[in-house]
């Protein structure tokens, strides 16, 4: 059974708590925190948001350790991540993550992991990468960190594209300036805009949008 949680931010109060409730777990879940997307961020001066992601996981029973796929091979990844309960992909640069995934074979690992019924959680970049087409997100990320031609194909595990941080003042200029809306309009994919208090729970081929402000 496929079981995914796709968020704008795991650090937002109520999001991690809601996911923990859906999973109903009492014991710490061994969780790999894929930090590769952070490496692709051109601005490394303030990465406090990454620690906020870690805190959002830890306080809700996820026993995390950081891991980068950069420079790894698929056999290495499989060996290093044997026995984990959850894959978490952080926020950051989804196109940089795709570049490093292409180099390492990480996409294959994620697909096999998800198909085995284990838990996947993504924040922002980690949610975007699970769709088929990342074309509308080109205005959201800095492409200067890429060393190869941009690859806008996601992993294709879900058939929609997430636009994270919808309505957030921090991301307002990225969405409203440039060609963002033109890129969205040209996309053939289903698009779902998520604000920071919403996440999508995917079970097999069904999904629902949950707003933690409406949960009791």
Walk me through this protein's architecture.
The protein has 216 residues and is α/β, with parallel strands linked by helices. It has nine helices and nine strands. It has helices at residues 15-23, 36-39, 48-58, 74-80, 94-104, 106-115, 125-128, 172-176, 180-186; strands at 3-7, 29-34, 62-67, 86-89, 119-123, 160-163, 190-193, 198-203, 206-211. The strands form two sheets. It has a seven-stranded mixed β-sheet with strand order 3-2-4-5-1-8-9, sandwiched between helices. Strands 6-7 form a two-stranded parallel ribbon. A hairpin with a 2-residue loop joins strand 8 and strand 9 (206-211). The longest helix has 11 residues, at 48-58. The protein starts with a strand and ends in a 5-residue tail after the last strand.
Q: Give the rounded overall mean pLDDT.
A: 90
Counting DSSP E segments of at least 2 residues, the number of strands comes to: 9
Over the alpha carbons, how many angstroms does the gyration radius reach?
16 Å
Instruction: Output the helix-strand order.
Output: EHEHHEHEHHEHEHHEEE
Strand order of the largest sheet: 3-2-4-5-1-8-9
Unreliable stretches (pLDDT < 50, length at least 5) are none
């Amino acid at each position: 059974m496929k079981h995914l949680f796709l968020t704008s931010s795991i650090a937002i109060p109520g999001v991690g708590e809601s996911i923990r409730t859906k999973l109903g777990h009492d014991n710490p879940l061994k969780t790999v925190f894929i930090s590769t997307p952070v490496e692709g961020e051109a601005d490394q001066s303030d990465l406090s948001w990454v620690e906020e992601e870690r805190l959002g996981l830890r306080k809700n029973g996820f026993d995390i350790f950081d891991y980068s796929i950069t420079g790894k091979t698929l056999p290495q990844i499989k060996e290093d991540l044997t026995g984990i309960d959850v894959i978490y992909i952080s926020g950051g640069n989804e196109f940089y993550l795709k570049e490093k995934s292409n180099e390492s074979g990480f996409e294959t690992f994620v697909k096999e992991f998800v198909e085995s019924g284990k838990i996947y959680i993504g924040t922002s970049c980690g949610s975007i990468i699970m769709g088929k087409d990342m074309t509308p997100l080109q205005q959201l990320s800095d492409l200067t960190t890429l060393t190869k031609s941009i690859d806008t194909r996601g992993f294709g595990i879900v058939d929609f594209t997430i636009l994270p941080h919808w309505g957030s003042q921090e991301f307002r200029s990225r969405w409203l300036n440039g060609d963002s809306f033109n890129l969205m309009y040209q996309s053939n994919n289903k698009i779902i805009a998520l604000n920071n208090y919403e996440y999508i729970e995917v079970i097999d081929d069904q999904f629902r949008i949950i707003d933690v402000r409406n949960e009791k």
